[in-house]
Design goal:
heterodimer, A: 293 residues, mainly alpha, MetI-like fold, 11 helices, 0% strand, B: 576 residues, alpha/beta, Rossmann fold, six-stranded mixed sheet, 22 helices, 21 strands, globular
Chain lengths: 293, 576
């Protein structure tokens, strides 16, 4: 998973930078990220609060108008307000992001922990299985599931969740193996603790805490995957305003109305980026073990 | 007093009198790290000079600024550092404001630098011959070709690497630790620099290899070259140095000739350092000035301690290992015998020291005693009952009888846990009555107090503690289940000498108060001799010699033991 490795690298640089300037310093990027995520969360829960127009209201007189004071982000070919449509689509996009990542991690935890704890042939079979799935591009896996299950929000969640799970599963397995080999697990064994107790007290918590970060990083990534599928026409169908669907719909007018592509794109990027920034901060707290004042 | 005069290094006549024109002058050196608003001074007002043909040693504990001082002299303090000095001259030239290029011209050619850990200092993918050749090529001392190869082999021969032609083509990991350190010294002396700086050159090495490297370094000195030797090991320093600088918290505490520092130390800190070295002389006495540990017993515990002292005399050994064999499959698929036919027994309240060089099978033996490793042959019995051959389920409830202290305590603590949780987790009472939180909490406080830690540290995580504090937590955890045996695997190897002294004293106090038996593993003969009743000497997986500590160390019978004992650097001057 190129996604995870690159983000881990970023996180490291981030951590060291903040440690030297003092643990109490909240970087500005974190404030911005929090505001962005808060905005989208409100949009997801109560879109009416933020909408300026009815997202489905047609107004052919003002079709394909650029950003203005009445239509902040412009209008589409049917004169619908793009800003309100993005707000309306937030719920779907976010539930796809959160749902797919949660599903993906749940599968990964189950298979990864099983593989790591069962030495011998089960581990071998599962590991080769992860490797085989990893050899296929995530989008290909997702496409496979969409073509099997048809197009809908829940299908997207399942498709993206299953498609991204092998990479996570392999990481879970490695984390559990790492913790299993640590001195504190051996020390617990030497104290006479049972394998069950050691699993729940040491192995799982220490193997999972790096995954907490991966969850936040994964949410942004899952939205991008889902948007990709929608863009290809395999996601949520119009008139839904899921972000990927918006991109797909705007495709034909991109020459006259750039905002139809750029604005939903910014929404996706802003949310994914903000969640990643927060994710890195969480990682810094958990793994860098910085005590906050 | 046991005063030794190694002929090779003690040459009063060879050292020239101080001249008015020293090779290196350092005056009021200050080094600080960090950005302007949170700058931390690491070296404060350090001044000294190094004359031609003299060896100046800088000693001090970790964090004393000794390595930073040395690195300043080769311009390697790194980014974010601020170096300031009234005078910093080498061979009469100013070296405090050199460009990177000027430093490169100076390093290697005029000032050689030997680092502590040869494995990380050598490029893992480059044959060592090439590494040494590089030093020559960079300064255009020699041209590529047959001459170069010849010179490299010559250098390797000079530093005593066997089969230099073969070794020159090998990669660092294919060489032993001692050979790597020799190769590193070869790169440092390749251009015959006027000054050689050696930063802890023998710290990572076994005593026999250490003795060889020290001999090699003193040869360099005999060629009238100056040397700055940095070490925390006072005995090593006493054999080599003409002058000694004792540093603490970035400042020079005491500066004088070796005779004066070792014979008549003026500063309390220096005296403390000297006293902290465990050896045959220190047996039965305390090494540190810390208070003796007090045994605050929880209700019902007095009984256990007394009973143990009674059965101490009943003769049956507490732990007995019989003809233990352990084999491991190496990376090449071949079976290697790591422990071969080793037997020992440990009585109640007794300390059995196990000494040997790295790779001699000490740790594997300890792990078999702890039943964390199952022997391929032989058996371990605990209190006369099956131990190594019992199932893990049968062993589990008896594991509280035998606990362990590791060399690296940090890795043996769950990083998420607070100190309180670490110790609480080890209390046997926890399993008997998990609801009795209050009494467990007070027991944790008592244990912390017993090992000399403030109970206010309870809520801290182990990562926030110093090395010595961590080892104290590890000891508290080890004694929490009221074990009969504590296996100590190199418990003080990673600690500074004065912290080591405190931990060794603590272990000694606990032994007399709790009546535990120790299986004490160390490569440091001084520490083992200080603490042990009996000693087992191991070499290549076999027990070479066993017996009472005094017999083994003072009157060794086996040639290997004699070699080991002879290799231990002795303090050259000893205060009466």
């Amino acid at each position: 998973m190129s996604v995870a490795t690159s983000s881990a690298g970023n996180a490291k640089a981030f951590t060291t930078a903040t440690v030297t300037t003092g643990a109490g310093n909240f970087p500005v990027s974190l404030y911005i990220a929090t505001v962005v995520v808060a905005f989208f969360l409100i949009a997801a829960i109560a879109p009416k609060l933020l909408q300026t127009h009815d997202p489905l209201e047609l107004d052919l007189m003002s079709s394909l108008k650029g950003p203005s004071l009445t239509h902040w982000l412009g209008t589409d070919q049917s004169g619908r307000d793009l800003y309100s449509r993005i707000v309306a689509g937030t719920g779907q996009s976010l539930s796809i992001g959160l749902g797919a990542t949660a599903l993906s991690l749940a599968i990964a935890l189950m298979l990864g922990v099983t593989a790591a704890l069962s030495s011998g042939w089960i581990d071998n079979v599962l590991s080769r299985f992860f490797d085989a799935l990893l050899a296929l591009p995530t989008l290909f896996l997702a496409l496979l599931f969409v073509s099997l299950l048809g197009t809908s929000v829940s299908t997207l969640i399942v498709a993206v969740g299953l498609g991204t799970s092998p990479g996570y599963a392999r990481m879970v397995r490695v984390q559990v193996l790492r913790v299993k080999a640590t001195g504190y697990v051996e020390a617990a064994k030497a104290l006479g603790h049972s394998p069950r107790g050691i699993l729940f007290k040491h192995v799982l918590p220490n193997a999972i805490s790096p995954l907490a970060t991966m969850f936040t990083l994964g949410v942004g990534q899952a939205i991008i995957w889902a948007s990709g599928l929608s863009f290809l026409g395999l996601g949520v169908a119009p008139p839904s305003s899921e972000w990927g669907a918006l991109l797909n719909a705007g495709r034909n007018y991109v020459i006259y109305a750039w905002w139809l592509e750029v604005m939903p794109g910014i929404a996706i990027a802003a949310f994914a980026l903000s969640v990643t920034v927060i994710g890195e901060y969480v990682q810094q707290r958990f793994e860098g073990r910085i005590e906050l004042p | 007093m046991n005063v030794t005069f190694p002929a090779a290094s003690f040459q009063e006549d060879a050292t020239p009198p101080p001249t008015s024109n020293p090779l290196l002058t350092v005056q009021n050196l200050n080094v600080a790290f960090g950005p302007a608003h949170s700058r931390r001074a690491v070296v404060k007002n350090v001044s000294f000079t190094v004359e031609k043909g003299r060896c100046v040693a800088i000693v001090g504990e970790s964090g004393s600024g000794k390595s930073v001082t040395a690195r300043t002299l080769v311009g390697l303090t790194g980014a974010c550092s601020h170096v300031q000095a009234d005078r910093l001259t080498f061979q009469g030239k100013n070296i405090d404001r050199l460009s990177d290029k000027e430093w490169r011209a100076l390093r290697g050619k005029h000032i050689g630098f030997v680092l502590q850990d040869a494995l990380v200092s050598l490029d893992p993918l480059r044959p060592i011959g090439k590494e040494i050749g590089e030093a020559l090529l960079v300064h255009r001392a020699i041209r590529r070709g047959a001459d170069l190869a010849e010179r490299v082999v010559e250098l390797l021969k000079l530093v005593g690497v066997p089969e230099p032609e073969v070794k020159a083509r090998q990669l660092p990991h294919e060489l032993s630790g001692g050979q790597r350190q020799r190769a590193l010294i070869a790169t440092a002396i390749a251009l015959d620099p006027a000054l050689l700086i050696a930063d802890e050159p023998t710290t990572a090495l076994d005593v026999t290899i250490q003795a060889q490297i020290l001999d090699l370094l003193s040869e360099t000195r005999e060629r009238k070259k100056a040397m700055i030797l940095i070490s925390h090991n006072l005995a090593v320093v006493s054999q080599m140095a003409d002058e000694i600088i004792v540093m603490r918290d970035g400042e020079i505490v005491e500066h004088g000739s070796s005779e004066q520092i070792f014979g008549d130390p003026r500063h309390d800190y220096t005296r403390g350092l000297l006293k902290a070295i465990p050896s045959v002389r220190s047996r039965g006495s305390r090494l540190s000035s810390s208070r003796a540990a007090r045994f605050v017993s929880a209700e019902g515990d007095e009984g256990t301690a007394l009973i143990q002292s009674d059965i101490a005399h009943c003769g049956r050994p507490l732990l007995e290992a019989e003809r233990l064999v352990k084999r491991f499959r190496g990376p090449d698929g071949k079976l290697r015998t790591v422990v071969n036919d080793v037997s020992f027994s440990l009585g109640y309240g007794e300390t059995l020291g196990i000494v040997g060089e790295s790779g001699s099978g000490k740790t594997t033996l300890a792990r078999m005693a702890l039943a964390l490793e199952v022997p391929d042959g032989g058996e371990v019995t605990l209190e006369g009952r099956q131990w190594s051959s019992a199932t893990e389920k049968e062993r589990r409830h008896r594991r509280s009888d035998i606990s362990v202290i590791y060399q690296d305590p940090l890795s043996s603590f769950d990083p998420r846990w607070t100190i309180e949780r670490v110790i609480d987790d080890a209390l046997t009472r926890r399993r008997e009555d998990p609801r009795d939180r209050a009494s467990r909490q007070s027991e944790v406080s008592e244990l912390l107090d017993l090992v000399g830690l403030s109970p206010s540290l309870k809520t801290r995580r182990t990562l926030e503690l110093s090395g010595g504090q961590r080892q104290r937590v590890a000891i508290a955890r080890a004694i929490a289940p009221h074990p009969k045996i504590i296996v100590c695997d190199e418990p003080v190897a990673a600690l500074d000498v004065s912290i080591q002294a405190q931990i060794v004293d603590l272990l000694g106090d606990l032994k007399s108060q709790l009546r535990v038996s120790y299986l004490f593993i160390s490569h440091d003969l001084g520490v083992v001799h200080h603490l042990s009743d009996r000693v087992l000497v191991m070499n290549h997986g076999e027990a070479v010699e066993a017996g009472r500590a005094d017999d083994v160390f003072l009157r060794p019978r086996q040639p290997y033991t004699r070699k080991l004992v002879a290799a231990v650097p002795q303090l050259r001057f000893q205060a009466a």
